[in-house]
Request: fold
Amino acid sequence: MHKTYHIVNGDCLKEMFPKNMKGEVIVARECLVDGNVTGESLDELLQVRAKFICSQYPVFSEEEYHQGTSVELKKILEINEKDEVNLWFEDDLFCQVNFWFCLNLLFENGKNQNIFLVRPNKGNEYNFGRMNQEELLMAHEYKMSIDSKSLEQMAKLWRMYQHKDWTGMLEIADQLKEQFSFLLPAVNAQIDRLSKGKYEGRPKESLRNIIIELETTEFAPLFKEFCKREEIYGFGDFQVRCLLKEILTSK
Reply:
């Protein structure tokens, strides 16, 4: 008997997930957009991520990371070839990097059929959290099929992201832009993060401008405005706090 799986990007979506939706929920409880992502095998990557997360989030131990994140991600390896997989991911870079990783995990584990992408509805492209139960059910009804050819191409985005092959990522995103238009903005947002000479990258430059305009270094208003202007990044409070700390300590 074939199963149905829903891979969701975080616990917030899991908590609001429609109760009458058939299938097992797997939480991609990671922020691969941030920090070291080296490691060719899943086990290697998870060891690297455990060390990074625990160095940045002191409230977590490596054991807690593996219990809360590694165990969950390894469930993806249990998905059979003919099972149905629904990936619930938003269009922002934070979600997209996790999405590419999950696709790569499926692809390299021999899963290449019955894979679907569930995206937020129009106006909520960066936030499932603004949608109600009926809208989430509707989003699932209009899910996008990912055929084997597209899967193979998008799975490459993760390995290219790991190896900083920005040119290769642009080429794939451009090739797939007719069906998956959200890829190119996300890849461009990643490239815009890169520092060049005195230019510190779009996120930090944007936050610097917000500090000047609002005339404050208080986190709450800065975070609110950053999220408003830079929705494409999908950064949480931790990522923005790190940017702010870097700006304030560089003065």
About this structure: The beta strands are 4-8, 24-27, 84-88, 115-118, 144-145.
